[in-house]
Amino acid sequence: FFLMIRRPPRSTPLYSSAASDVYKRQEQARVKLKERAQKHVLKSCADTLRAQLMTKPYYIINGRVASFAISSENQEAVELAIVDRYGQPVSQKIFNNAFSICSSENEIKAVLEEFKPDFAVVGASGLKAYCLKQALQKLGMPTIWGDLTIPLVYNKSQLAVAQARLIQDPMTEIIGIKDIAELPLHPLQKFISKEKLKERLN
């Protein structure tokens, strides 16, 4: 006959205790790393928001801004808003073809001559925005780049107006946002609960 000798199973108390200890240590290390990462993200969000609130308003002589916005949802259209020094829209218009207004310049020129803004701001990225900025500068209009990141959060229907107000008075515009936790402040903030983020930002 054959004599078979079996090794003790790995589920003996000795093995079980060691495995359990390793698992507990790994879990503790994972929790600590997660807490440390969350604290870093929360601090980064708070620092970014503080920097945005402390941004100096763009100097305006007469107060009128020509704000151009090309939304990522409709890159063919250009939204234009002439906004006065109090943040109120004087005139609003939508151009259905971004490249056509860049090439002809007549439509933009007519608006600039009528309302005489102090400067223009272009919010978008890509070739169309670059062509628009060049067309404005060619007409002698001081032009700066804007940022639609914040307006896209709370005022999609009036991007150009919101962009102009953000340039004129960043602190007032940001404080007026109802859900401050919706602002894109850090790439990893989606992994933080809104309650924790709101508590840290407030």
Notes on the protein architecture:
With 202 residues, this protein is of the alpha/beta class. It has helices at residues 13-53, 98-104, 106-115, 127-138, 151-154, 159-168, 170-175, 194-201; strands spanning 65-69, 78-83, 89-95, 119-123, 143-145. A five-stranded mixed beta sheet has the order 3-2-1-4-5, sandwiched between helices. The longest helix has 41 residues, at 13-53.
Short summary:
By secondary structure, the chain is α/β, with parallel strands linked by helices. It contains 8 helices and 5 strands.
DSSP, total strands: 5
The order of strands across the largest sheet is 3-2-1-4-5
Helix content: 40-55%
Distance between the first and last residues' Cα: 80 Å
- Summarize the helix and strand pattern as letters: HEEEHHEHEHHHH
Give unreliable regions as ranges. Answer: none
Question: What key phrases describe this protein's structure?
Answer:
alpha/beta; 202 residues; 5 strands
Q: Which helices and strands appear, and what pairs or packs with what?
A:
Elements: H1 13-53, E1 65-69, E2 78-83, E3 89-95, H2 98-104, H3 106-115, E4 119-123, H4 127-138, E5 143-145, H5 151-154, H6 159-168, H7 170-175, H8 194-201
Parallel strand pairs: 1-4, 4-5
Antiparallel strand pairs: 1-2, 2-3
